[in-house]
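Model it.
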Amino acid sequence: MKNADRIGVALVLVAGAAMAASANTTILYDNFDGFGADLNGAAADVGGTWQASAGWLDDGAVTATQDGGALLETGGLMTNAQYHLHAIVNNATSQWIALGFGRDALQAPGGVVQFNDRFSNEIEGIAWMLVRNDSARNDVECFNGYRTSGNAYGGDPGVDFGSPIALDIFIDTTGDGSGFAVEYMINGMSLATANVGITIADMNYAGFSFDYGSGGSVSVSEFSLTLIPAPASLAMLGLGGLAATRRRR
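Modeled.
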């Protein structure tokens, strides 16, 4: 089934604890329990080595004074499966931090290349969302990609910026790989669903992007990418899994 044939997507999150069920596979995971060394070149708890701009640390602190990012390679997404990209971030500042997928590697891992190492620029962000505490702009925005094309959501969903913020992106790749369905969530609240006509072969990286502003405390405390193989995931509806309803035109 091609992406254009998909409609009526309903992706449901109920209990995050059930994501540890045996049907699931953790592809990437890091709890950022380091001691403040550079994140670039550090091994994730599961799934490879971080590419990170200057100022990203292995204890989750983002001390960068320029724009940048931190990425892990996904190893490629499979068709006919569901994925859950998850992070916990802390951000009470007006500068945004984002979670999502990207096509391209960082321009200068371990260094600083302003604007280039963001989902909105040369990384070619795909299915990504940002959060910031800024009364003059949308607190949360979601983009299907590439970059800032395909704006799926922009608004103020009532985020408590004094507490950790859960960002969740669900991907359903049912079909021939020419596209996917996506749902964006914040603190368990669904913001938007969409069908995206971007090949899953371009979703080579997953991680974070950062837009430096006036400074302040920004950090991440958890990151994971989980595979929920279909059709096993359908039995998990109501247990932290995904379900997709479709019909042919």
